Model the fold of this input.
Amino acid sequence: MHGVCLSVGSTDPVDFEFLDKLRALAKRVKAVWLGDHICWTGVAGLNGHDLYPVPYTEEGLRHMVSRVRIIQDYLERPLVLENPSTYLTFASSSMPEEEFIARLAVEANCALLLDVNNVYVTCRNHDLDPVAYLDAIPYEHVVQVHLAGHTDNGTHCIDTHDGRVIDEVWQLYARVHEKTGGRATLLEWDANVPKFSVLQQEVGKAARFRNGVRISRRVAA
Amino acid sequence: MSLRDTPRLETLERWMQAVVMHPAGAAHGVASRPARRLVPAAARELESVVLPSKSLSSIERLGIYAHMYYARLLEILGEEYPTTRQILGDKVFKGACRRFLERNPSKHRTLNRLSERFPDFLSRHLPPGSRRGLAVDVARIERAMEDVFDAPQAEPLTAAGFAAIGADEWHRVRLRVIPALRMFRLRYPVNDYMNAARGAGGPRMPRPRASCAIVYRLGYRVYRRDQTPEQFKLLSALAAGRTLAEAVRSSVSGRGGTAEKLAATLGAWFREWAAAGLFCGIERGGAGRRRR
Done:
């Protein structure tokens, strides 16, 4: 199971009524993993239905670690948290995103879902090096990998899940595969969904990258 | 901004939310009173709270989230109310949606509940005119289609279940309707209009004509269909917890025709409702009104 509304980073009280429903659903569908994002979606009782970034501060980390522990205990299973695409940086952040994620995984003892496209988008938006980002991830915590397409607006990228995975992301994916030794991979393509054969081709491309075969532009087109 | 002035996590989240949910955009959000009260420094020097990137200023970066907030919710309302939008036209519909969102920000984790109060909002805030009545009626049906999709599942009563009710039991038997059923008395022939709206070109504005409609879910599909006034009255009485005998008496008393003809009509209605899976249980209690 994977969601977008757990709002782990929110400073509103933990919603145990919602966790009850989530736990019941996870049990019913025999969920192997229960995942969400490293973000908050609303505060003061409101919901913005977006993945808002947390400031990467010691206070933010303590808050997230504490919330993840509470939620994991209540759900009786480890959470799998995904790095989101982000579009702004708080000036108060005192550590890079990848360090925040690594410390969160270790200190809360939760699993990670590494979205390679989100790494690319975030690094483009914040003028960061995606390879350095990936090298800081504690791969023993990574249980799943996501791939997706995005929209490049020139000045910034938006995670839109509406197209093919770009070459740069494939290269990062190959690097992640080397680091993990192989993890389940999900291709996210949920807007402008193409013919099944195109999706199949993209999934096949992921398999070939995992097998160490670089795909030429001619074959991938 | 000094370390002493660095906003706490809770303050920063409340500030960002106030900025990105501001109806006039991020710049107005930063300058708004709630945002200034939370993080005064941001109004003076935004870069001390949100860093610029090489390509975008701090306000442009906040603007990405502000734009996405309204764009996403407007898109959802457009998808949930396609026929209402067609009736009102894009400009009036989008204006109404924006005003609705400004006054009714989402308070639920699921987007399916975002527009629960939208039909009521339209009825109170659309300018008077020939299209308001139809638009509100259609919006009520389109909202109900969202409601029943998420309503709890209940196993529908089978034909054999109905057959097991003896004629001597009618005075004490009550039928339980499924949670995924909504019933409407409307001022316009909405169901016909919505069917016609699915075709090319769009239908003509209908004249006001009272109609009764039900919206329900069977399995994973949502249906809407018209009911005759008598059918609707009987179904309403059953849904309100009347016994079969009371419900039939209150809805078809005074109807002409022979007892055989009445029995045939009732039989046809119940077969239709059973096929639609509208009932999910039989209660064999006393003759008194069920507590609800």
